[in-house]
Write a structure and sequence with these properties.
elongated, alpha/beta, tRNA processing, 2 domains, Rossmann fold, GMP Synthetase, Chain A, domain 3, TRM5-TYW2-like_MTfase, transferase, 12 helices, four-stranded mixed beta sheet, eight-stranded mixed beta sheet, single chain
Length: 365
């Protein structure tokens, strides 16, 4: 039985013979072997079919390629655009409709593939969010997108209500459709615009900050969004990883991260799929003394001696403590209660999530 790649190569070679275009090894190598499947739409990689000869071979249209691959619609992606939305750069080659649908953990997501992206690599975090106990809670999602985390909070975690902040009009359109598809329209209020300007204050039991490489620009608004009685922040971020040679502690700390604040084993749990992996952050180097203090009381086997990972958590703890006092006044107890390793990027970058418990020490409510 012929594979789609073999069928595609044969059809393209026949086209070359018909148009008297010389078949070369370069053309052979330019034929894709891998692609993304989105229902009946196939998304070709940006590296495929780039030789100038394809312009004349396919001047009659892309139907031969679609037929060979067994799809009804065909598109090709390029590099992500450098706009504020990190928009995909996708061109529809064959077919008229660019909307696709994914079913992920029994949740339906639809979106226009030309304007929005779907990260299958985040499935573990979406499942984890869905497993949280959020009955009766109000959640604020500062970077809602098409509903990646909004829907797990509502459908599986049982959140009472979600405030969804989003500034990309294309993602907003998909979010509205997805809320309707999953029958959650009445449980979500959409706030269109920059979350730093339009996010509601003092309403949330839980705030989701699903922005990478860093969500730190929105930590102040996240703290302000929490109820005066406190709640939980889920802070996403990319943390650089290095080899053991690169990960050697420096003699002096290059960033103040509240060295007096310690994280103990009872304060933080860690989930990392790669036992013994090393995590670091070039902005959060700590002295050897601070590393020793930080490891004291922490399950080193569980975190794999990832002292820079712990330093990232300590930086979060320190900054969130300061921002909570600015937003709400009074004294607060801040604990990083869990660190989640979502996935890895190449080279040496890991997507992490810190769950941060925020409680006022004295609250009269």
């Amino acid at each position: 039985m012929k594979t789609p790649h073999v069928k595609l190569r044969e059809i393209l070679r026949e086209l070359a013979e018909e148009k008297e275009v010389q078949w070369t090894e370069d053309l052979e190598r330019d034929i894709p072997r891998h692609w993304e499947v989105h229902g009946d739409l196939i998304l070709l990689p940006d590296s495929a079919l780039q030789m100038p000869e394809w312009s004349s071979l396919l001047e009659g249209g892309w139907r031969p390629v679609a037929d060979a691959l067994g799809c009804k619609r065909l598109a090709q992606k390029s590099r992500i655009q450098s706009d504020d939305y990190r928009s995909p750069n996708v061109k529809l080659l064959f077919g008229k409709d660019s909307w696709v649908e994914h079913i992920d953990n029994r949740i339906r997501y639809c979106y226009d593939i030309r304007h929005s992206m779907f990260s299958a690599g985040n499935i573990s975090e979406k499942i984890r969010v869905g497993s949280l106990i959020c009955q009766g809670e109000t959640v604020v999602d500062l970077f809602a997108g098409i509903g990646y985390f909004v829907l797990p909070y509502l459908v599986h975690a049982g959140a009472k209500f979600v405030h969804a902040c989003e500034w990309n009009p294309h993602a907003l359109k998909a979010l509205k459709r997805n809320l309707e598809l999953n029958k959650m329209k009445e449980k979500c209020q959409i706030h269109f615009g920059d979350c730093r300007k339009i996010c509601p204050r003092s309403v949330a039991d839980r705030v989701n900050l699903g922005l990478i490489p860093s969500s730190e620009c929105s930590w102040p608004v996240a703290c302000a969004a929490l109820k005066p009685s406190g709640g939980t922040l889920h802070i996403h971020g990319n943390v650089e990883t290095h080899s053991s040679e690169q990960n050697t502690p420096q003699e002096e700390s290059t960033t103040e991260i509240c060295a007096s604040d310690e994280l103990y084993e009872e304060d933080v749990s860690v989930n990392c799929s790669r036992s013994g992996s090393r995590f670091s952050n070039s902005r959060l180097e700590v002295s050897a003394k601070t590393e020793d203090e930080e490891m004291e009381g922490v399950d080193s086997a569980r975190i794999g001696q990832n002292v820079h990972w712990v330093a990232w958590a300590r930086h979060i703890k320190c900054e969130i403590h300061r921002l909570l006092e600015e937003a709400h006044g009074g004294e607060w107890e801040v604990k990083v209660i869990h660190l989640e390793h979502v996935k890895s990027y190449a080279p040496h970058v890991d997507h992490m999530v810190a769950d941060v418990s925020c409680r006022p020490i004295v609250w009269s409510g």
